[in-house]
Amino acid sequence: MNSSPIGTPLNVIIVGAGLVGLATALALRRAGHHVEIYEKSSFSREVGAAVTCGPNATKILEGLGCDFGRMRGVEHTQTRYFTKDQGDGDLSFVSRGSDLFQKFGARFYLVHRVDLHTELKDLTTSPTGLGEPCILHLGSAVLSLDCESGTIGLGDGSFVSADVVIVADGINSSLRKFMTPHTPPYPSGLAAFRTTIPFSLVNAENESGLEWVRESKRALCLINDDGGRRNLTVYPCRGGEVLNVAGLHPIAFSGTGEDGEEKVASFGGKVSSPGQFLEGFKDFSARYKELIRLSPAENVTLWPLLLFEELPTWISGRTCLVGDAAHAMFPMLGQGAAQGFEDAITLATLLPSTLSEHSTSSLSDANKDQSDAINARLRLFESLRKSRATEIQTLSNRIGRGLPVLQFGELFPII
Ligand SMILES: Cc1cc2nc3c(=O)[nH]c(=O)nc-3n(C[C@H](O)[C@H](O)[C@H](O)COP(=O)(O)OP(=O)(O)OC[C@H]3O[C@@H](n4cnc5c(N)ncnc54)[C@H](O)[C@@H]3O)c2cc1C
């Protein structure tokens, strides 16, 4: 039998059912609230690329009931560093991450984004589990937001109000402008190709130069050019059956020109091709190009990497920004979603179901008390989360500003 925390549930609206919107919904459900999620897409085209979940992310996700076994996550225990000119027989620099569990009390997983999204969606809406199942409205674009009353306007002309509205509509948020001065993200001149390659294709090429991939079955491999501004990141997911490959580069290298700077409205990327991916890395050693050539033609996307500055505030009245809508960052340190998961768990901790209990007798006084209490908690949320997320955003964005990239290990003191 389910046991919900005792108290008066808040009615919560969440805009956006990406990784962070769903994690926030799940955390608030488990804190005893009534949660409805409005998502503009119908999830008919889910993006096939993987994400790294560092110990800070896995600790939160496991605490919310996510099961990395069910998601077929691969535990990351080793990073291998290569340079673009290395050929067969050249040794890589290897750093081991197997002591992460001892250090942080949580493991580091490599997981397919669709598997993580499905896990979060299932737990959020499941009739079993702690709290009341969240209601997910697909195909429901939110067009407007009134921060003081907590009211959203939908595409069909209707309006819905709640005690709290959490905006998780991604880097190009269309609702952020109702909360804080409009400061859109802007092009950095860098972009990333992303694809996933079945490991069976790598094994089938057993006469080729792909031995470096086969012997790195469980490792995260980083292949850098001289300045580190072009980089291939290769790691397994789905129990080692699928290889995630990402290729960061200045747009001049892939011939994507201004087109490569197109705004990405949500997590989606734009359609690209193995040929375009190869073009961006044509001076890399043959063995790396052999891997790129295995990219499935229908599954290569190109992501313009946008720079997003710290916002003056994340909150207004009864509303609050979380995830990429609040603090989108470059993927260099694998902390974009992870920082959103930290938002989710912090909010759920600060919004207990006892918050809306009050002693005032009149309804208008009670509404005012509740509104003030919610706003005070959201301010507390911002004071706890904003400086940390901004610091990690600044470190992640270094390459976009022409500064040397931090390596994974350099981030460990703060994750
Ligand atoms: C190349 C690349 C690699 C990355 N690798 C990693 C990694 O290894 N580790 C990591 O932690 N992070 C990584 N990230 C970052 C991570 O993917 C993002 O930080 C994370 O997905 C953001 O989640 P979100 O829910 O905030 O936003 P999104 O995933 O963008 O979700 C926003 C949702 O809101 C919906 N929406 C938008 N507008 C509206 C509206 N008006 N009404 C209703 N719904 C709306 C969208 O349809 C979408 O579903 C990477 C990012 C990139 C580009």
From TrEMBL:
<dbReference type="InterPro" id="IPR036188">
    <property type="entry name" value="FAD/NAD-bd_sf"/>
</dbReference>
<keyword id="KW-0812">Transmembrane</keyword>
<comment type="similarity">
    <text>Belongs to the paxM FAD-dependent monooxygenase family.</text>
</comment>
<dbReference type="Pfam" id="PF13450">
    <property type="entry name" value="NAD_binding_8"/>
</dbReference>
<dbReference type="InterPro" id="IPR002938">
    <property type="entry name" value="FAD-bd"/>
</dbReference>
<keyword id="KW-0285">Flavoprotein</keyword>
<keyword id="KW-0274">FAD</keyword>
<dbReference type="InterPro" id="IPR050493">
    <property type="entry name" value="FAD-dep_Monooxygenase_BioMet"/>
</dbReference>
<feature type="transmembrane region" description="Helical">
    <location>
        <begin position="6"/>
        <end position="28"/>
    </location>
</feature>
<dbReference type="GO" id="GO:0004497">
    <property type="term" value="F:monooxygenase activity"/>
</dbReference>
<keyword id="KW-0503">Monooxygenase</keyword>
<dbReference type="GO" id="GO:0071949">
    <property type="term" value="F:FAD binding"/>
</dbReference>
<keyword id="KW-0472">Membrane</keyword>
<dbReference type="Pfam" id="PF01494">
    <property type="entry name" value="FAD_binding_3"/>
</dbReference>
<feature type="domain" description="FAD-binding">
    <location>
        <begin position="313"/>
        <end position="373"/>
    </location>
</feature>
<keyword id="KW-1133">Transmembrane helix</keyword>
<protein>
    <submittedName>
        <fullName>FAD/NAD(P)-binding domain-containing protein</fullName>
    </submittedName>
</protein>
<keyword id="KW-0560">Oxidoreductase</keyword>
